[in-house]
TrEMBL record:
GO biological process annotation, one example: cellular response to virus
Secretion signal span: none
Entries under SMART domains matching the protein: VWC, VWC_out
Cell location: Secreted
GO cellular component, one term: extracellular region
Domain annotation VWFC: ranges: 1-53, 53-114, 111-172, 178-238
Species the sequence originates in: Machaerirhynchus nigripectus
Protein's name in the database: VWCE protein
Domain of life the protein comes from: Eukaryota
Amino acid sequence: RGIPREPGAHWTEPGCQSCTCQGGRVLCDALSCSVPCSHPLPTPAGGCCPTCTGCLHEGVARAEGDVFSPSDGNCTVCVCLAGNVSCLSPECPPGSCPSPSPSDCCSCTPEKCHFRGRTYAHGAQFSLDGDDCTTCVCQGGEVECSFTPCPMLDCPQHQRHLGPGQCCSICRDPPAPAGCFLDDNGVEFPVGQIWSPGDPCELCICQADGSVSCQRTDCVETCPYPIRIPGQCCPDCSAGCTYMGRIFSNNETFPSALDPCLSCICLVR
């Protein structure tokens, strides 16, 4: 093919032919592949021999180091190592087992529980005789008992009640309020009582649920010289006038404190 070859040289021609140069002649034969693995990958494109850099198992190519289960292995685990597939099956305990297997790898029967003269199947729940507050369960031949869990209560401790024969406490409704108790001065007002907490412009009432509702009074009547009566919320514009610290009745005439030649009169309008 126009290429010189040294005597004894070996090379591969297209078509997977193995050739050698002997005594000036070229001898060719089909390439013989030596595959040192049990599950080689098919011959790659442009190659002549299968490769052991992975595994071909049940028609599926597996990469080096892959761990997998065969389609009908039933919990068998296989691994691909250097073109070889090695598989391991689980060892099942003989006879009974502590609990049923989560899969069908092993067929076994969980042990029953013999407790106080009775036999219970695995997983059975039951209560002790005369004690409904204790729940027991059979687990692989052993009986475990615990108190029945109670729900969380959202009421204060003094409103919780445990009745005869009950396992868990319940919340009782608080007693209806008899009035309104004020913590600041220790006075209790009956329902419907109206009072002023110290400000004559604010009135409070004791509600039926024991709460206190207060409301302020808005003064709408105004005049320039009203009379302010102690303990009264709004100034009085109908009783007379307050001028320079003195109180004058309606239509009363008096000299001005600023100018003795001026005469003033209190007029209610």
